[in-house]
Specification:
Elements lengths: L4 E6 L5 E6 L5 H13 L9 H4 L19
Antiparallel strand pairs: 1-2
Protein name: DUF2997 domain-containing protein
Pfam families: DUF2997
InterPro entries: DUF2997
């Protein structure tokens, strides 16, 4: 699992650039919603490849069968 980070760059004119890394899928929007509502109007959003990625859950099932023959 990668580390989740939020990076903010505050420019002299008051603009704030926010960068989210380590969060897979659209849940990054949930993480940043409260912060963005306090900062003001969102002018632009650019999704990264992590936004469009899907989390992969793998499960493995092993089936064994034993037979015994007397010949």
């Amino acid at each position: 699992m990668s580390m989740e980070t939020l990076e903010f760059v505050i420019y002299p004119d008051g603009r704030v650039q926010e960068k989210v890394t380590g969060i897979i899928g659209a849940s990054c929007a949930e993480v940043t919603a409260a912060i963005e509502s306090q900062l003001g109007n969102v002018i632009n959003q650019e999704q990264t490849s992590e936004y469009f990625a899907q989390q992969v859950n793998q499960t493995a099932v092993a089936t064994t069968q034993a037979t015994y023959s007397e010949w």
